[in-house]
Amino acid sequence: MQMQNKGLVFLRYAMALLFIWFGYAQLANSVAWTLFLPAWTASLPISAVLFVQMNGVMEIVFGMCMFVGFFTRLVSLLLGLHLMIIAVSVGKDIDVALGVRDAGLAAAAWAIAMNSADELTVDAKIKSKKLKRSAAAAETAKV
Fold this sequence. Notes:
- The chain is mainly alpha-helical.
- It has one domain.
- It has six helices and no strands.
């Protein structure tokens, strides 16, 4: 593995663990996390606690996908978008510093999405198997 890739792998693991931790924290203490919800969530047809719990589950599932590298680019793109929405909402309604921090984390998630899957991802293993099958099929077709 090249040194350049090691940095991206480290970033992917760090961001994945961050999302998993935040997701777990939201499930473990959902009521406390409702304090961070922007005003517009009050108009949703579900309770604030359920909204936080659903968000926690989503962050855990997507964080685990990012950690193992399954649909890495899509998951990173969506988590970055999710964080940017949080950054704008929280930065406008609650605390500018939190919004700026979350915008930086969104940029880190998008940096992962902008790169191809590293060799430690499930995505790369699936791609490698497909390439081997294609090569074997092409070789068989020549015979």
